[in-house]
Amino acid sequence: MSQNSKIEKSYDELTYKSAAFAQSSPYKLEACATLLGINPPPCKNAKVLEIGCSFGGNLIPFAVNNENARVVGIDLSGEQIRRGQEIVKEIGLSNLELIHGDICEFKSDEKFDYIIAHGVFSWVPDFVKDAILRVVRENLSQNGVAFISYNVYPGWKIKDVVRDLMLLAAKDQNSTEERLKAAKEALLVYKEVLLTRDNEKFEKFMPIKSLITWIDDILSKDDFYVVHEFLEDINDPFYFKDFCEKIDKFDLAYLCDIDMKDVFVPDFGNALVDDFKNVHFADRIQSEQFLDILNMKLFRQSLIVHKNAFEVIKAKQIGPSDINKLHVVANFIKKDDGWYDRFNVMPQDICWLCEVFNKMFPASINLSQILEILPEDKLVVYSAFVRLITNSANTMIVKDELKDIEYRPGYSRLNPNLINYVKYFLKHKEETNIGFANRFCVSERLNLVDYYIFLLLDGKNNLEDIASKALKFIKENDVKIFEANGEEIKRNKVVSNILNYVAGTIRIASMLYLLEEI
User: What is the pLDDT of residues 77-92, one digit of tens each?
Assistant: First the structure.
């Protein structure tokens, strides 16, 4: 059996949950490229190709929200494409085509403005890697942007140890289920060994704490992820510099990483280290590789463009006028010790800006709006704005302004293009192969009542109407509602708080930009 046939069989047998990924959204790619001086086509009528699209879960939210866009996905797994096509048909999407095929055989005269290959490149043979880059070279429009994610060294060197153990334990097992069971048993045994050696003596030559951390992480993941990430024949991490050397042979160039820290935070932050870097690694690729080693980088999500497109902008210096092309959304929460995003506390000296974003959320803000508030402190404002973007992991940057559209009868409604999309999740309950996401591929955990309420946001129903209908829906369908900690909310509490619950769901619709003005 060929390598590609084995990969196809593996994904047919254990399909991969098809999620949406905000980092690979064409809106994100458009914003990053615009900032760096490339003028990519607007998303509303863009042509998008995803290589390794699974059921289409990363494409459907974009296609639903951009009826004039042309969206294509290709995947080696016939089973995933078959089921994905059923979903596309049920939702009624005419602008999304899912193709069962081998990227090595992909031939088209069509040019795509955004090409996505997320979770593919490190997991295929070298000849398939070459085929992906050939497609990018031949089918990416002149100012288009490709997104390619891949595992990198040195961070993956420790994970390689864990994967090698899993492969060794699973090698004599026949079925996927047996291989997975054997691999997990081996991890538990290895963890027991590591725990007995978690002391100063062994720490001198074993990264014990890191190994335990990765074992716990793997054991917490879904089975389909563990199998396809750790038990496939191919998982090929490599150094960033080698990736750049490879794409260069296809007349492609590295633009930036999706988090843009290589643009905004190009230094390590230590004078001795940065002086050494600047003397010995003046080339931007070598400098990035040096920092990858210092930071034990294990995963990259790179934006790729045509080499001749990069040549035009490679000497560009980013300044306030460039930053002002972006609109930024960030949701911060105030706690006793400062302002937090979803993961971390923000630097104390930019807390004032966090407060501004909090008041505006989910409306976007751009640099000129902040300068209107503090016109006398342009340098301070600019520095704070850039630091906020780079310090917050869940900041969203887009090219076009986003409004905070609240639901009011006669004023706003659910975007009609979303009705069939929402109905799909309401109908299939927990048996969906894709996850719900907005046009920026931002996901949200929702339940059946939330989907039902979304459909009631028709511009006619008021809050009381929606609450009454939602309560009836809950009773007739015996829907259970849970707290964030997983504890079920008692029915009498649901009834007494139904107005607040509905108001909260309506706010989620605003925060996800699901509403439009009438």
Answer: 999 999 999 999 999 9
